[in-house]
Each structure stands twice: as structure tokens, then as C-alpha cells.
Amino acid sequence: MRALRHYGYDHVIDKLKAICIAKMSFYNEETCLSMIDMYKDEMRYLLYQLKVPDTEFCRFVTGCGQYNDSLYRWKFDVFTNQFEAYTQIDVFPEASPFAVLHLADPHVSFEYRVGVAYSCREELCCTNRQMTPVTNMSAEDSGPYGEPRKTGLYGRCDLPVRTLRSALKSAASLKFDFVYITGDFIPHTSFNFSFSRVIYEITEQTRIINEALPNKDIYVSIGNHDDYPSFLFPTDRMVAGKYSSDRLYYALWKIWGDKWIPTEAKDTFLKGGFYTASISPGVRLFSLNTNYCYKLNWWLAVDPEDPEGQLRWLDEGLAEAARMKEKVHIIGHIPPGTKECHSEWATAYQKIISKHSQIINGQFFGHMHWDQFTVDWSVEDDPKKQSIPTGVQISSPSITTYMTGYPSYRILKFDKFGGLEDIDTYMLNITALNKKFLARTKGFDRRALDKAVQELDRNDKSYRFWQKMYSTRAAYGLKDLSPNSFADLIERFAKNDSLLEFYYRALYQFHEEPSNVHCSKGVCTTNYYYRTGLEHYVTCEQNSYGSTKFTECEKAVGEIIS
Question: Are 145 and 126 in contact (CB under 8 A)?
Fold first, then answer.
């Protein structure tokens, strides 16, 4: 920041570009320069809006220390005591049991190519950027259905569109009534992207999903990659100039409005990308824009307190739902129970869940790409009073294979009151399917390989090979999926190593390589994602960030990277 003020912003950008040219970046020169170009103009504008000392900005956006500025240390007050709003609710109206298809993080790469490198020094591999004119197809090249992460390699490959179609065709054969899509349609790359391309690709995926799932009510939330530049979501309170998020919300409304988002939700969606909808008699959905809690949304360094008034809107909306005797589902992209969110927003969210827990029957998120959950705990004014479980944030495994395991989707099953009864998780073993394709095409040159891929697309039967991997209740021996049951499960994980090892394999979407995981007393180690020898405090991070349970655990074991 001192260099910015002394030499000017262009000087700082030139220095960053010099790092790219000197090959001092993890990425190759072209990718490194592309990432700088993606953010440089908006960051110039953002930095000149700051109202805090340089050190506080550094601490807030990079986590390089504990920030103290009152701008960042904001608090959210709820206006009634816990459960007070629900003393008059004796009976909730009955609905019919129903099921929901949950799709998380498709990250479709329309540039995915078969027979190219799945390890590269770019943001995204397995694309036509790594394609060579002459190819002899081998086991070291990308297969037709995607590539899971491999131990020791940064296999950053997003989802080929054929695998999205396969997932949708597989899911269409199952029984469900609604669809929740929790964002991140766009692949993990900045190269050759623009705002218009983001909107085009979301439009294409929306069309594909609508064609595959006709006559289904679909509800959606916005992911951190679903804008350009990604991650950066200013609010109306900020002096953001031409970098307002309005263009995104208006563009998405043209795609989803009146179809995936009801007409009556237009005002709040155009304001901040969030909305509420009645999805079934007695059941109401709140779709949150959790990009407003995201640590990589640097606009929050300018004005972090309850962006767009979303938390106050949620608090008041839940109170109205209680008055109408409605049960509630919450969806969003980034789970507030993880350290992906700023702690002030996460704590405020804990307060809201604590207050309204009697009507909240489910919270469903994505973003993590992993299969995980966190338990919410009551926020007590009296520090001597024991917290109780008030909610569960369910993070579904992703469809994309980027940095993780097999493509996945879920069927959420609800009872006649909208309560969560069970979760069935489905996966596709793309390693096995890719091996079959390789056996037919090994040694093919590019022309023969492209012809084989075209033939595969004309007659793709991969949808038949999706498997139900497990039922949540059966796998963990749960009598129900209540917050109390999940809190009890955390305690059992700390005592039952084999049960926790199953959870840990599920966490990585049952890719074959985490079979060497070892768990003991709530702590696991594996060389699959975390570096060899690193202890992963699994049962600690199963308590939601922002809760007293998480804070107590972190004090005992040190900083938790969740």
C-alpha cells in the first residue's frame, strides 16, 4: 500500500507483471498475466475507496493477522430472545412428502478436451489450451468424463458437458419434485473470459438443465465464480462506480426470472441476488447470496456490515414465516459454517439460526466441493449457559472433479412437514469409464481420437453407471437428521475411528486414493489433499464457524483450516 501511494498503481501492476514474466509465479506467464488483467482495474478503484489503515486492510483481506478496526468488528443484534417468536406455534400445517435433487458446483468447462494434459501450470487443465496437433492417446491424458485429482498432482480439470448431461439423465430416472442448484456454473479460469462469456455459459447450462428436467420447479443461488471478475461483489452502499453488481443481477434475472426464481422475488434478487419463495404448502425457501460473507470478496474491506441488509431481511423473513406457520429451507453457495466466511457474518448467521431454529428444517450449500456438514450452536448471552445444537449446514459434494473426487449429486428426502428425513448420495466412477475408453483408443492420433469422442457423444450410456453410494441415515446409524443427531455423531466420530474414516472417504467423494486415510480420536491424516503428515481436525471443523464450540475447539488445538 505504501508503494501504491508513493509510486502509483501502475507501478505496482508493472511489478506484479514482472513476477509473471520472470516465471516466479506458480502459473505460466500467460495465465499469470491474465489473472492480473482480470482484477487490476476493479482493484484500482476499490483500493482508493478504503477508509482503514493499510495494516487493517492487509489483515482483513489476507488473514495476515487479527484486525481490530471498528469498521470490521461489527455486530448483528436480533430483536427477540431465542425461541420467543415461536411460543404460539403449536401445530404446523401438513404437506405431502417430497424430494429435492441437489446439484452443487457444476463448473462446466465447454473447452474440455479428451487426450490432453490433466496437470499443467494454468488455472484450468484438460482444455484445448493444452492440446497438441499430434496426440497418441495414453493413460496420462484426460479421459472423456473428467479427471479426479491425483495424489501429488494439481489436477485442475473441470467438468465436461457430457458428464453434466449424464448426471441429469441419471437423476431424471429418480423420483424428486424440486431442484436446488447452489451456484458456480463457471469454470475455474480467467483466461479469455469476460462478463458476456460468463452470461453466455450460464445461459447454455440453464438451457441444458431445463431440457433434461422439464416440468421441474428449480431454485438457484449465485456462486462466487458466477460473475466477472469472479469473487468481487460490491453493494449499493459502496461507491463502486461501473463495478456495480447490478449488471449481473439484471442479466441473471433475464435468464432465471419467472422460471427458476418467482416473479414476486424480483425486487430482492435485483437488489442483492437473494430471494424467498413458497415451494410447497407450508414450506418456504430462502436463497442467500453468501458471496457477501466471502473472504475473497475484497469489496467487503470497504463496507463489510450486513451487505445489502441481507441478514436483517433473513431475520425478518423467518419471523414472518413463523407467523404464517411455515417450515423453512435455506440454500446458498458458500456455507457460513466454514472459514470461507468472515467471522462477523458467520456469527450473525449463527444468531439468526439460533433464534429461528424451530422452523428451519434444512440448510443446503455447495462451494467446498466436498461432502461435509457443520453443526450450528445456540448463541447464549450468558457465557455460563451451555450451547445447544440448533441447525445443520449440509455441504453437498460437487458435480465437477476440480481438485477432488468423483462427480456427485444428491436426493434430499423430506417428510410431510418439510423435515429432512434422509440424503441419498449418487456418484459416477469416471476412472472406470475413462479406462474403458482408453482401452479402445490407446495410441490414437488426434484425428482418430476426435472421431471416437464424437461417436461416444452420439451413443453415451454413462448415465446407467451412476451409483447410490450411501444413505446418510443408514451409513451413520442416525435415528433422524436433527441437529441433536448430528451433534451426537460428532461425539461418536471422536470415539469410532472406522466410522470417521468412512466419513473421510465420503468427504473426498470416494475417490480410490483416500483409501489410505487414518483417523484417531477425531483427527485424520491422508496424502490425498492435505500434505503428508498434516493433522486434519475433522471433528473440530464439524462445528460451525462463528459458534462457541468452534472457538473452544480452535483454542484447544490451534488454528483450523477448514
Answer: no
376 assigned ligand-binding residue: no
pLDDT in tens, 153-167: 556 899 999 999 999
CB atoms within 10 A of CB 174: 14
Q: Is the dihedral of CA 228, 229, 231, 232 positive or negative?
A: negative
| Residue 450 labeled ligand binder | no
Is 184 assigned to a binding site? yes
CA nearest to 390, candidates 340, 330, 333:
330
Quickly state the pLDDT bin for 476 (edges 50, 70, 90): very high
> What DSSP letter does each residue of 302-345 carry, written as one string?
T--SSGGGHHHHHHHHHHHHHHTT-EEEEE-SS-TTSTTB-HHH
Q: Is residue 6 annotated as involved in ligand binding?
A: no
Of the candidates 108, 153, 159, 156, the one whose C-alpha atom is nearest the C-alpha of residue 130 is 156
- Any known ligand binding at 69? no
State the Cα–Cα distance between residues 200 and 206, nearest whole angstrom.
10
105: annotated binding-site residue?
yes
Is-contact 141 156, C-beta < 8 A?
A: no
CB half-sphere exposure, 460, CA atoms < 13 A: 23
Full DSSP string of 220-244: E---TTSSSSTT----TTS--GGG-
Q: pTM of the entire structure? A: 0.94
CATH architecture of 84-112+158-428+466-557: 4-Layer Sandwich (3.60)
| Angle separating helix axes 497-507 and 483-495, nearest 10 degrees | 110
In whole angstroms, what separates CA 416 from the centre of its chain?
A: 28
Domain locations in the chain as residue ranges:
2-48, 84-112+158-428+466-557
Query: Does residue 225 have a known ligand-binding role?
Result: no
